Amino acid sequence: MVCIGSLYCVSGHSEASQKSLFNTALASIQRLVDQNRSKYQERWIMQTLLLLEFFGIYGGDDECFLQAQRIHRDLVDAMRMLQLTHDGSHSFQDEDNEEDEMDGASTNSESPESLDASWLEFAELEAKKRCVYSLYLLDSQLAILCNLRPMLSSLEIKYDLPCSENLWLAKSASSWFARRQEQFNSFNDNDDESYDHEASPSQGFFYEASQTLLHSKHLKDHKRLRLLWASPFAAIILVTQLQMMARELTHASCLLERPKSQRRALSVLTDSQHSQISQALKGIAELVPRNKRSTFSFLPPCDLPFPDNETPLWHSFWLLWLYSSLTLSHPDSLLVSGVVECNLPLAIATAGHLATPRSKEKRDIYEDRDVFRILNDLELALERMSPTKSTASPLMENPFISILGFKICLIGWRLVRLTMGEAHEAANRGATSNPCKFVLDIIMAFVHLEQDAIMCNEALYGTAVHEQEAGLHATNNPSTITNLGQTFSDNMASEVQFLEWVIDVFKQRKSWPVGNWIAAVMEESLEKARTVYNESKARGD
Q1: Is 108 exposed, middle or buried, given 0-12, 13-18 or 19+ CB atoms closer than 10 A?
Q2: Which Pfam families match (predicted)?
């Protein structure tokens, strides 16, 4: 436990010492489970191995990454061998009985001893359930990041969805009972019984929850799914499942219907597949809180108000949701190209390379419908990543979510390159309406907002507030486009400005090395973009 704590705390540990701590902790746990495989059933063993796997994936060391993959395989094998994907006494009970237990939980009085026992039983079951779902999430993350084939299917997991965070974080049996009572009482709406809605499907299985989202038109009438309002972890699990479903459909479609000998449509999914998964995503969005964001402020980031419901998990949920929605129309480049990478730095570099602008003959066909579908989600995603708009601290961001943000920015880069030439020509013609300029203006609004904020802070305080901490370009930096005599109306400078903004955003992600990896990849692209821009200015384009 000391090793685990040392790995995750903010300290001056070198990479060598972190690797040593990682290996020491892993070796200790490995000795225990090698002697007795049933040790995997102990909750603390599972939790420790999951933490080690997470650190191995995102810690930045290639050997640790390979060890993390071995941990993952061992955990999946142990979970199947020991049948840890379900708890037979709970998961297979009749749905009506389960509903009765929920309703009765708020009225039955218990002695302090039995209440303590009930709380401990709940905590043990919930902890095991969350370990299994965490393993599923890590399995999905490896697939999304490196294009590895997933080892786990949602069909294998027979647990119900995780409970609300409020219930899970209760500090005592009495607090747990009180929160449980409040939670279930809030759903005892007598009016529900008078309506003739379709019968609620069993929520005992992970698979059935997704089927409800995909096929039901009355999501708010299902008590279990309504708990998503208070459970960002459960919401993340369901969105991840939809993302993996879309990836499997995309992978199959690429094998069947996308010959490389000709230009292909950007969107791979059929209209029916796109519509069904998109509707399920919208169904989840309707069941979770719409986070209140602070309006634009000239105050330093540390002085921005943080709403109560703006937690790191909800921030992760919304970026994952937006990424999943975006990739229905703009599938992941590693997935459609069939490239599999063996570590994260290579996966990030390859994703950046595949997003590099290409001539019309060598890129996919961007249909108007796809562009405007993408634009809506892209605008919301960039807003969540924008330092002047987001209320979530970049230091608290999960490294997986940071990489999803990078992939979202690559989509934005593609659209900037796709539209800025026509937008520039339209501006020179004096056109009052142009779809390309409309798309470009929406994307660049956040970049210009950052530059406006810096200039206003300089005017108010004499310097950009927290410039070094935020990593933002100051207006007196000669390398920026805005100080080369150009204005925001210079559409041909949009690519350079956008890439500068992306680099600034990811330099703020300092808790894990992925931020620096992303910034390094984008800096190479920025140099090329500056060269192209300067050449076009020299030609007078």
Answers
A1: exposed
A2: Fungal_trans (PF04082)
Better-scored residue on pLDDT, 99 or 122? 122
Res 215: pLDDT: 75
**Cα–Cα distances in angstroms (integers) from residue 479 to residues 33, 473, 527, in the given order:** 55, 9, 10
Cβ neighbours of residue 17 under 8 Å, at least 6 residues apart?
none
**360-404 confidence digits (pLDDT tens):** 777 778 888 889 899 999 999 999 888 777 767 787 789 999 999
Residue 524 has pLDDT above 80, yes or no: yes
In the chain, the N- to C-terminal Cα span, in Å, equals 62
d(CA 441, CA 423): 9
Distance, C-alpha 395 to centroid of its chain: 15
pLDDT on residue 98 = 45
C-alpha–C-alpha distance, residues 447 and 427, integer Å: 19
> What digits encode the pLDDT tens for the residues 81-91?
998 888 764 44
| Domain extent listing, the chain | 341-462+488-540
pTM: 0.83
Residue type, 456: C
Cβ 409 vs Cβ 515: under 8 Å: no
Reference 10, options 468, 507, 511, 516; nearest CA is 511
3-class DSSP state for residue 365?
strand
- Identify the CA nearest to 245 among candidates 220, 289, 214: 214
Q: Give dist(CA 380, CA 318) in Å, integer.
A: 9
What CA–CA distances, in Å, run from 83 to 34, 49, 71, 75, 357? 18, 18, 18, 12, 48
The residues, any chain, with a CB within 8 Å of residue 381's CB and separated by 6 or more, are 319, 322, 323, 326, 405, 408
- Cα–Cα distances (Å) from 359 to 124, 330, 433, 438, 527, in that order, read 57, 18, 25, 22, 19
Could you tell me the CA-to-CA distances from 397 to 160, 312, 346, 503 in Å, in that order?
A: 27, 7, 21, 16
Q: Which residues of 37-66 are buried (b: 16+ CB within 10 A; e: fewer)?
A: eebbeeeebbbbbbbbbbbbbbbbbeebbe
Looking at residue 491, its pLDDT comes to: 77
Q: What is the mean pLDDT of residues 238-243?
A: 95
